[in-house]
Amino acid sequence: MVRLPLTPAELERGQRLGALLRRARGERSMLGTALDAGVSPETLRKIESGRVATPAFPTIAAIADVLGLSLDAVWAEINRADAAAPARSAHEHHAGERLAL
Amino acid sequence: MVRLPLTPAELERGQRLGALLRRARGERSMLGTALDAGVSPETLRKIESGRVATPAFPTIAAIADVLGLSLDAVWAEINRADAAAPARSAHEHHAGERLAL
DNA sequence: CATGACACCGATTGTAGTACCGGGGATAAC
DNA sequence: GTTATCCCCGGTACTACAATCGGTGTCATG
């Protein structure tokens, strides 16, 4: 394979990521949030709607920064319900447990 | 534009990200680290060598997880020397200051 | 010397992220 | 009715990532 299609588990994690960001945005406008984060409003909308499952690290970091979210907390949260679905490697042994800051 | 080419600032940030990860890996083998994180060894090598400037959020999160790194600390660190280079939006006002958990 | 394991590199392939362009709907103000 | 703002959506375009396949070099071991 050259670029593995996203697994169902990754797609669901993308959904949780989007829902988390939308919740954290609260009353703020999507447009202003996107501009403050330095990303396109369409990009933010696609991430929030879960249509972009694995966004770039700087993109999520910038958005989390604007929303006052901890990246570690975000990562831990969206992996909460992911235990039963092995990602792509048989080496997967314990993901989401070394999050202490 | 449709998909802006990476800016020099983003490329340099990618270099810092790679250097940081390589430093954090220490004596551990690149192969084992990549497999533990569930990513391809080539992918980890490209990230560490700075040839992939904006990796996916889950990719960096998985690697940081294996290395015991805080994502917030990583993001803050690689943005340290980035103040003089405006990213892509004039809205950029203060990046890397809301990292408290 | 040969073998194996590890790191590095160049080239290639295919999917996916980012962003722009319209258009649509809903609300509120003038 | 018009204007404005905000959110949502489908389609499109271009770049970048993720991964595989060879090949090269090194170092340790047999």
UniProtKB/TrEMBL annotation, chains A, B:
Identify the stretch annotated as signal peptide in this record.
none
Q: Which InterPro entries match?
A: Cro/C1-type_HTH, Lambda_DNA-bd_dom_sf
Query: Which domain of life does the protein's organism represent?
Result: Bacteria
For the HTH cro/C1-type domain, which residue ranges apply? 37-74
Q: Which CDD domains match?
A: HTH_XRE
Q: Name one Pfam family in it.
A: HTH_31
- Output this protein's name: Helix-turn-helix transcriptional regulator
Organism of provenance: Pseudonocardia benzenivorans
Identify the taxonomic lineage of the organism of origin: Bacteria, Bacillati, Actinomycetota, Actinomycetes, Pseudonocardiales
